From TrEMBL:
It holds the Pfam family 7TMR-DISM_7TM. Keywords: Membrane, Signal, Transmembrane, Transmembrane helix. Residues 1-22 form the signal peptide. This is diguanylate cyclase. Its main location: membrane. Its EC number is 2.7.7.65. It is found in: Cell inner membrane. Its cofactor is Mg(2+). NCBIfam families: GGDEF (TIGR00254). PROSITE patterns: GGDEF. Residues 429-563 form the GGDEF domain. GO terms for molecular function: diguanylate cyclase activity. InterPro entries: 7TMR_DISM_rcpt_extracell_dom1, 7TMR_DISM_rcpt_extracell_dom2, Diguanylate_Cyclase, GGDEF_dom, Nucleotide_cyclase, Rev_trsase/Diguanyl_cyclase.
Amino acid sequence: MELLKKLILLSLLMINASVAGAEPRVDITEGPVSLTDFSMGYFVDDSQALTYQDITAMPFTPTSSKTTLGTSARVTWFKVILDNATGEQQPLFVHLPHAYHVRSVDFYQERSGRLVDQQTLDMEEIDDDPLMYRGTAVYPLTIPADQSTTLYLRSHAYSHQWFAVEVMDEQTSRRALISIKTDIALLVGMMLALVVYNGLLYFATSKKENIFYSFYLISGLVWIALSYGLIASTFDVYGSEIFKLNISLITMPIFLMLFMMAVFETKRFYPTEHRILQALLVVLSGTLIWGMYDISAALKPASSLAALMMVVTFSVSISLYRKGNPLVVYFLIGHSFFVLFNGIAVLFYKGIIAHSYLSSHGVGIGIVLEALTLAFIISHRIKILEDIRASQEELKKQAATDPLTRLYNRRYFFAEADYMLELAKNRGTPLAVLVIDIDHFKQVNDQYGHSCGDQVLVSIAQTLKKHSRTKDLLARFGGEEFVVLLPEADLQEANRCAERLRAAVQALEVTVNDNDVVHSTVSIGIAEVMVGNDGVEAALNRADKALYQAKHSGRNRLCFETPELAQAEYG
C-alpha cells in the first residue's frame, strides 16, 4: 500500500513537471529581434485582487501573443517566458500596442524565481510616464546571457479584454514607435471627407436624413480613431474620460436607425417596419442613457446589441426590398458589408475567434464601406428628386407655353404681367404693350397649306423673340396674334422696339415646299400702360384698337392709340 502511494505521488510530480515543461517559451536568437506572433499564457482574475505572489502558483492557459478574451476577463494576467540563447546580454523592449484602451498595466519581471523589477502604468495618472509612448506601453528589460526571464503582465481593461504583446530590440522598437497608423488615418480621412460632402448636400437640400447621416459619420470616425489608437497616438491622451468616447459605439446605430426611417420614409409608407425600428431605437436609447452613467457596464452587452441591431436592420431592409422600395437595394449592399465585417468583429471581441487584421479591424472596415454606400443612397435619392423636380418644371413650362411656337401663352402672360406691373409701380418706371398681327396670314394657309402656315408662324415667332429685348415678355395669344409687354419703356421706346420687330419680319424669308419662299409682314398696335391708374388688360384693349387702325391703314405699319403722337406709317 505504501508503495502504491509513492507511485501515485511520483506520477503526479512527473505530470506537473511535463506541464511546467510545456509552458510556452520565447527564444531570443542572434540578429534583429522583432517578435510579434508567439505563444504565451493567460489567467483570468475574476476576483480582481490576486497579487504577484498569488499568480505565480496559478495555471496559465496557452494563447497567442495577440488575443481577445471578451468582456468577462476585465483583469487578466499574461505570462511570457523569454530565453536568451545568444550567449550575450540582450537589452529588449516589450511593446503593448493596445495599452491605450486599458485602465492600467502592471509589469513584473522574474528571474530564477525571484522578482527583479516591478512597474505600474496607470492610465488615470499617466503624467508623462516614460513607459507610455503614443498609445503604446513600452517596458524595457535586459536578459543576461544564457538566462531566462519570466514576465508577468496584469491588464485591467475597461470593458473588452483584447491584448497584444510584442518583443523587439532597440532599433526595431524605435521604428515601430515612429510608424504611422496609415490604414486608420485613411479610414478616418474618408469619413471626414464624407462628413464635408454630406454637409454640402444638406445645405443644398435641407433634408433631415443628411443630419442623421452626418452624426452617424461623426460617431463612426470617433469610434474608429479611438478604438484603433489614432486619438491616443495623435493627442497622447488616455484614461476613463477619453474612454467615455466609446459611447459613439452606441450613438452610431441610433443615427443609422434614424437615417433609415427618414430616407425610406417608413412612417409614411411602411408602418410595420417603422414600429420595429422604433422598438430597437428605444433599446439603443436606453443603452445610451445607461452609458452616460457607466460606459464600461453599458459596453458589456454592446457586442450582443450590435448583433441584434444587424439582424433587425437587415430583416427590415429585406422587407422593404420585397415591398419595392427603389433605394433599399443599395442599402442592402452596403449593410451586407457592415453585417459581414461587424459579425467577424463581434466574434473577435467576444473571444470566439482568434486575432487577425480582419477580425480586429472589422468594425472600422464595415463602417466605412456602409458609409460609402449610404452616401451613394443620398446622392441617388437627390438625383431622383431632381428628376421629379425637373419633370414638374417641364410640366409647368408646358402649361405656360404655346406648343407650336414655344412662346408663352395667354395665361402665363397675364400672371407675369401683373407682377411686372407691380414692379413698375414700385420702381416708378413706365410700361408699354405691343399687339402684333401677321398680315394676310389666311392667304398663306390657303396657298401653301396649314403645315407650311405653321412653319411660317414658327419662323416669325423666333424672329420676334430674337429681336425683342431680354427683359421683354413675349406671348402668343392665339392664331396669328402676338403680344409683347415692354418694361421700362415709354411710347418712344415702345415705338423703337416695335419698328425693330416690324422690320425684322419684313426682311424674313421662309422657304416652304423646298423651293417656295414666303414673305410676311406684321401690323403692330402700341399703347402705354397707365401705371397706377389702370391695368395691363386696359392697355391691351387700347393697343388692340391701334392695331385695328394699322390694319385699315394699309398694314405693315405701327399705330398708337394715343392721339398726342402722330401715326408712323411705313409702306
